[in-house]
């Protein structure tokens, strides 16, 4: 597993420049509406291929008045293995600002999908919360895709799992057993009703 230990934004959305370093493995972001919390999450989501958490167009990403933008992150193994430390960066191409470029340790990637060798992300957004209210089929398909992103060695042709908690445990080779009595993801939790 990898985690972001440093995040740098340049002319991205409402941030002129931001340099943030993680103090702990888990970070909680709080603030008033419109302060840029979702922009931070969107910046992280742009470090992997795709249109990001919001699906925004390239011309929506630069800060007002800027033509170019950039997001960079230091990604490190949670177990401290320095060999797995890598710097990922993405942003508007200076020659063609309507296109996005990716860099790994300062080297441009020919194929943006190459980022997946270093970093992947799974997003659960409010729009997806029906996932937890519907039957086991949807949760199983989702959890299988989630596991494949977290553990690329998981077989591609594996069938959707009907016990999402157990499939989540299968993501990690050294996973601890699921505690008895934990409800399956397909069971609506009281707080979510």
What separation lies between the terminal Cα atoms? 32 Å
Main beta-sheet annotation = 6 strands, antiparallel
Low-confidence parts, pLDDT < 50 over ≥5 residues?
157-165, 172-193
- Along the chain, the helix and strand elements come as EEHEEEEHH
- Major sheet: arrangement of strands: 2-1-3-4-5-6
What gyration radius follows from the Cα positions, in whole Å? Answer: 18 Å
Explained architecture:
The chain contains three helices and six strands. The protein has 193 residues and is an alpha+beta fold. The protein has a six-stranded antiparallel sheet, with helices on one face. Mean pLDDT is 75; it is low at 157-165 and 172-193.
Outline of this structure?
This protein is α+β, with helices and mostly antiparallel strands. Helices cover 16% and strands 21% of the residues. It contains three helices and six strands.
List keywords for this structure.
single chain; alpha+beta; six-stranded antiparallel sheet; 3 helices; globular
List the helices and strands and how they pair.
Elements: E1 2-12, E2 15-21, H1 37-45, E3 70-77, E4 86-92, E5 100-104, E6 107-108, H2 136-150, H3 164-169
Antiparallel strand pairs: 1-2, 1-3, 3-4, 4-5, 5-6
